[in-house]
Amino acid sequence: MRRALLLGVAFLVIAAGTILALVLPGATTDAIGTARITRVFIPAIKTECLNRAGLVTPDLGFAFTDDGALHTLDPGDGSVSGLPTGQLAMLNDCLEQYPIEPSQEPPRDQYSRNLLYDYFHGVLHPCLASRVDTLPPLPSRADFVVRLYVWDPFRALAPGRQLDELLALSAACPERPPYLALDATVAEADLIPHALAWRAQEDCLGAVGIGPEPGHSWSIDGQTVEIFDADGGVIASFTNAASGAPTGRSLLTCLRSVPFKAVVSPPASLGQRLLLADYARSVLWPCLRSYGFDPGPTPDAAAYQTVEGARDADPFANTRADRMPTQVLFALAAECPAIPQYLVGAG
């Protein structure tokens, strides 16, 4: 369960990671993507472009343009370097073809690091090992997840390799799975499935030691949070008192951050739900799979005959999503809405 990961105990993290490995989307080791050009590529880019321009190790200074591409400090007229303007133009044209992506720090939360470790262990390491002779050793799961050890194979592979080889390796073996490369933030206007509202609420309550069930609910009255069971009875009450109540304050902040205003449910009209079934088959399931998340078999139109059936068919509500971090699912929902804008609020 997710709360076990939050304990930060190494053996629990390892056990939870093993469970995650069973439910994570499968990935092939020979899938070709788009090369991600980072700072470790800079020496190879400089060498490649100097060769194209016919320049032999000139003493040049380099800087970045606004979009991250390298360029020479020479204004292009040879006044700084003394080089022919034609060769300088060729050099800068070449450099502009390879903009450098901003540095992307690996996630620090244990949910995402477990997902990333599963990808490193099951996909990236085998993919690279089939193409290069040596790789830096992959740390243990406990070292990577709990002690925040770094594994950066491309930094070790880049020295001495030509640019075309590095680009091919990066395209064939992406260093980050797409479901962890998303911006895990959600604007209020984004469409959040009903299932994820419950997931976020469950995370908040679980953090203060309450194991909620789908029938539970909560309310905020000023600085007090009350948790109710399915019959409306109060299970617990937390107050952010003036004297300071860390648990109540934390729960209040967490629950208020859940984007309930953006929650969407299946339309009430059968005709609209059948349109939703067609959207799921032709758009939603392919979109999720393109980001490396396997939502399982595409439901047929029969699953959308009732509102409850359509809600159960929501890919963010099925068991395959249970052990993925809520924020990762929020990001996926922003990219692949469970219900398209044209069906939101449809009767």
List keywords for this structure.
single chain, 347 residues, mainly alpha, 3-stranded antiparallel sheet, two-stranded antiparallel sheet, 14 helices, 7 strands, disordered N terminus
**Topology order in helix (H) and strand (E) letters:** HHHEEHHHHHHEHEEEHEHHH
- Helix-strand category: mainly alpha
Helical content, roughly? 40-55%
- The total tally of domains equals 3
Q: Give the spatial strand order of the biggest sheet.
A: 4-5-6
The shape, in one word, is: elongated
Percent range for β-strand residues = 5-15%
- Strand segment tally: 7
Low-confidence stretches: 1-32
Cα Rg: 25 Å
Total of helices: 14
Distance between the termini: 37 Å
In round numbers, the mean pLDDT is 79
Largest sheet: 3 strands, antiparallel
Topology:
Blueprint lengths: L1 H5 L3 H14 L18 H11 L9 E3 L5 E3 L12 H11 L14 H20 L11 H5 L7 H5 L5 H10 L5 H4 L10 E2 H14 L9 E5 L2 E5 L5 E6 L6 H11 L6 E2 L5 H21 L16 H7 L12 H10 L12
Parallel strand pairs: 3-7
Antiparallel strand pairs: 1-2, 4-5, 5-6
